[in-house]
Specification:
Length: 158
Amino acid sequence: MIAAANRDRSAGPTGVRLGCLATLALMVLGAVGVALVTFVATRGDGRIALGTAEDYTPGSVVYRSTAHFFVVRALDGRVFALSDLDPHNPPDRESCRVTFRPDLPPEGTLGDATRGRFFDACTGATYDLEGRVLDGDGLDLRQRAIQSETDGRLYVQP
């Protein structure tokens, strides 16, 4: 009887398998990589580097998915950042995000060369390219402050 019990135990896995160790190592390496990229992208002081205004085509909208905001360059050269967070979300809830829809007809004051609108799929609200609500309950998209350095580089606080 004891010999049969020992035989059953020896048939099962014993110890950690090589695949588990490799998976754990890849997970740790991925976490370190994300932390390093985040540190480099924010310059270590929390700011997110945007480059310069010349890096953005006039009338363009660029989405910064890792930081959850849009960078808009108006035809007149202004550069501003708009949060992608739906302004209708209750506090501490970030389930609804606004997207940019280049297929929707333009509205607002950025000029005829721009295309698209911001769209909130949760409420159906649309916003012009400056973040002003076009239809809905009157809540505009939240602008994020852009800091400009003397060398022309632009930064946003997270």
